[in-house]
Amino acid sequence: MASPRTFTFLCGLLATNLVAATLSPPAVLRIGPEVIKEKLTQKLKDRDAVHILQQLPLLSAMQESSQGVLAKLVSSILKHILWLKVTSASILQLQVLPLPNSQELLVKIPLDMVAGFNTPLVKTIVQLHMEAEAEAVIHLETSEVGEDQLVLSDCSNTRGSLRISLLHKLSFFLNSIAENVIKCLVPALPKLVKSELCPVVREAFGDVREDLLNLVKLPTSLNSDLLEFELLSPAIDGSAVQFNLGAKLLDSEGNVIMLFNDTVDSLNLPVPSNVPFSLVVRKDVVNAVVAALLPPEELMVLLDYVLPELARRLKLSIRVISKEAADKLGPTQIAKILTQDTPEFLVDRGSARAAQLIVLEIFPTSEVRRPLFTVGIEASSEAQFYTEDDHLMLHFNDISSDRIHLMNSDIGLFNPELLKNITAEILVSILLPHQNGKLRSGIPVSMVKALGYETASWSLVEDALVITSASSNLHSPLFR
């Protein structure tokens, strides 16, 4: 279980480390070059790209690419070669780099191979070291139905990246044959990379794209409700791929409760840069998620049976207002709490709080239908996020009655501020543990592990919840 101090709440630092979007969609998933590189590397492995390299038809490619004088050279060389093939191959570390227009990404795939050939004249196998680099471009392309999608194209061998050398010096005769083989391979190998490897690279990127889109659509369970994201539009921004997302909240039967697919230009939705990945969820979506976990409800507690000491202090507080009213409180007195609204997150002066409206009614006995009084309470709690396995956890620390209003009274008018302390105690003793109990299951965030990270950092800013990889360079936490 990760310590809460690993989760950062950003405020002033965002001005320098975050880039504000012009419009604020309900959510933004930003995938950095590190994640794209790792995903594409894995998909190339899944599609056995190294095996493709090991099966490159070098001899036939030499024949097909030779012209003029080179064709005569190939013919003469083939008389001295029994076989020529790649004996070992590897794909080195990929690079994903932004192109100057900021609308495309360049993918570089370094290749390292060893080829061997032998001749009928000697039994020695001649080994050649071959280095090449495939390049491809990730960009947006509009489909026939008018939708933008990420595609990979322009795959070819990088000019100037091809290097072929003799691995071990042999006799003058074999060295001479090897040099001629190298001359014939120089025009042949780039064509092989383009014809044999590039289709696999395009297919692997298609797999990466589908995985990311499926990851976006994966629903998040919120007790009996579900939160689902949907793709509004993809984009390439700097060195990252960005998915602008809509969101919707569904009930257990799949009916849409709330729909978030609009963009808001009055919000400053932060988009973290220089992190492997980030998911930014707009504040109204966050509040809807918490609403699904903490819907408005009604709690009734027999104070004398459950919290006798609290019942005693309540009686003393009411006695200050009316001795007659205090004497009416019996052994079956009831405190009734009605939560009117879901908690709403506020970030102010380096701390995050959840504000909510609560109605409290005190009944003298369980038989009486009319409460002694009804007060409305503007309450707030310190909100703390942390992770437990692959779940985002939320916990309320303490709860306070910030303002209290008299809504109804059967004991005449009185100043409700006289009850501020005791109502706060009632909320702390009854409502706080109840809400934290409901939040205990947390919010599953399968995206973190699916992108290859065990933990993540969580930040709550004025307009959004920001989820980034734990390796993020963002700091200045509000909670430690």
Automatic annotation (TrEMBL):
Alphabetized UniProt keyword annotations: Signal
GO-annotated biological processes: innate immune response in mucosa; negative regulation of toll-like receptor 4 signaling pathway
CDD domains xrefs: BPI1 (cd00025)
Name of the molecule in the record: BPI fold containing family B member 1
Domain Lipid-binding serum glycoprotein N-terminal: 36-254
Taxonomic superkingdom: Eukaryota
Signal peptide limits: 1-21
GO MF annotation: an example: lipid binding
GO CC annotation, single: extracellular exosome
Record PANTHER family: BPI FOLD-CONTAINING FAMILY B MEMBER 1
InterPro entries according to UniProt: Bactericidal_perm-incr_a/b_dom (IPR017943), Bpifb1 (IPR021193), Lipid-bd_serum_glycop_N (IPR017942)
Lineage: Eukaryota, Metazoa, Chordata, Craniata, Vertebrata
The organism of origin for this protein: Catagonus wagneri (Chacoan peccary)
Gene3D superfamilies assigned: Bactericidal permeability-increasing protein, domain 1, Bactericidal permeability-increasing protein, domain 2
